[in-house]
């Protein structure tokens, strides 16, 4: 039987995970919007402009750097669980809990 403090701790951890996930999705939407704008900017840059090469390099660096940053953010939020579904984790967790319960009885 779980104590109220265990339930409270579990609720706090769950709320924290949801907050991290929400922040990641906001970050992802902002990333998509900005990358689309930068790609459009790369498309419309006139090669006859004096600063065209600078802006092409600058936009490319921003896109690459932000892509790396959002990849690290996704890794941090999902903790590398992009390939392992929640159902798999729950099944394994229950399996280990059942095995541990039988050891102590």
From TrEMBL:
InterPro entries linked: 2TM_dom
Q: Which UniProt keywords apply?
A: Membrane, Transmembrane, Transmembrane helix
In terms of Pfam families, this protein maps to: 2TM
Q: Which residues form the 2TM domain?
A: 13-98
Which residues span the membrane? Answer: 21-40, 60-78
Which protein is depicted?
2TM domain-containing protein
């Amino acid at each position: 039987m779980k104590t109220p403090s265990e339930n409270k701790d579990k609720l706090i951890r769950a709320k924290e995970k949801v907050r991290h996930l929400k922040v990641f999705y906001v970050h992802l939407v902002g990333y998509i919007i900005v990358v689309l704008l930068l790609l459009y900017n790369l498309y419309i840059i006139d090669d006859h402009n004096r600063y065209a090469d600078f802006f092409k390099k600058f936009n490319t660096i921003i896109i690459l750097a932000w892509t790396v940053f959002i990849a690290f953010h996704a890794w941090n939020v999902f903790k590398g669980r992009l390939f392992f579904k929640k159902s798999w984790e729950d099944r394994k967790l229950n399996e280990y809990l059942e095995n541990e319960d039988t050891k102590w009885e």
